[in-house]
Write a structure and sequence with these properties.
13 strands, two-stranded parallel ribbon, 317 residues, 21% strand, single chain
């Protein structure tokens, strides 16, 4: 993203603070060499030490940072190339990558950014180690040596200004509003505000995945007033009565917005577990069965920490 991305990432890091603490507290599963800490004071000291290690490492990975990252490892080091850490997944994978790198000197996790079809082809050729994707593997791809495990759910929610009169919206109505077919908000046949759509950078792949959950038969291009990061987007929605945006559940944590339910369903543990919330889809980690040991260890870390609050909402949300 352009210049404001750092600010947006810091906002999202604060938003998912609970998941970050759980991630670092349980990070010994990634290294296999941590000692068990059994007192509150010792746990706090260990947590402070881990956080200081993480704070000295890059949180967000971008294509522009690849040269800097690769220049810090020796010729004998191990590079794990990973694709699909986009949208709402990028900050979480970035934090876990930093922890893994700090526990495994000489290992660097490098982003790989093309579209998922090209990334899958590179994985088949052995030029890529891990791929996060929403597309299940075919039988043919499995016969070529690829495997896939479920990471969890990615969930998106429509947000509006708190003074918007609606509390629920149908999936069809949301499609019309985001597509620009509906220009005014209305309730009981009476218009009360002009629709003002906000989006992240239109090229953001995570956002495109969310729009595909609304338009599965098409390749939609998100459109609206583009913002540089989630913080700017939330601020914009909070400032206009007719504003609307589709955002990751983890980003929708601001007192200045309202989250609409979709088809009468809120994004909760119950609706996600039952598969009844309409705007959530499964994310998979895909890898080669003959992949390198470090890549497979990092894959196991992704699977270990996905259940610690990152891809599912906390109770009461």
């Amino acid at each position: 993203m352009p210049g404001g991305a750092g600010l947006g990432e810091r906002k999202r890091n604060r938003v998912s603070g609970i998941a970050t603490l759980l991630l670092v507290l349980s990070s010994q599963a990634c290294s296999g060499s941590q000692e068990y800490v059994d007192s509150p004071d010792a746990r706090k000291a260990e947590l402070d030490r881990e956080l200081s290690l993480v704070s000295d490492l890059p949180i967000a990975r971008t294509p522009d940072s690849r040269t800097t990252l690769s220049s810090t490892i020796q010729e004998s080091g191990t590079v794990i190339s990973l694709a699909g850490a986009v949208g709402d997944r990028s900050a979480w994978v970035g934090r876990l990558s930093s922890v893994f790198e700090s526990q495994n000197p000489g290992v660097v996790i490098r982003p790989f950014d093309p579209n998922s079809d090209q990334a899958l082809a590179e994985l088949l050729r052995g030029n890529l180690d891990l791929l996060l994707t929403t597309k299940p593997l075919s039988y043919s791809q499995k016969r070529q040596g690829l495997r896939q495990e479920s990471l969890g759910l990615e969930t998106w929610v429509p947000i509006v200004h708190p003074r918007n009169l609606l509390f629920d919206i149908s999936k069809d109505e949301l499609r019309e509003i985001l597509a620009g077919s509906t220009r005014h908000w209305s309730l009981s046949g009476k218009q009360f505000a002009e629709v003002r759509r906000y989006i992240l950078d239109p090229q953001d792949q995570g956002q495109r995945e969310a729009w595909r959950s609304l338009w599965p038969a098409a390749v939609p291009r998100p459109h609206g007033a583009a913002t540089r990061n989630w913080l700017e987007l939330l601020t914009s929605v909070a400032s206009e009565r007719g504003a609307v945006a589709l955002v990751p559940l983890d980003a929708a944590q601001s007192p200045g917005i309202k989250i609409l339910s979709v088809d009468g369903k809120r994004a909760t543990y119950q609706t996600l577990a039952a598969g009844s919330y309409p705007l959530s889809y499964r994310v998979y980690v895909t890898y080669r069965v003959d992949g390198g040991p470090e890549a497979l260890r990092f894959k196991d870390c992704l699977l270990e920490h996905q259940a610690r609050g990152r891809l599912l909402p906390r109770p009461g949300r």
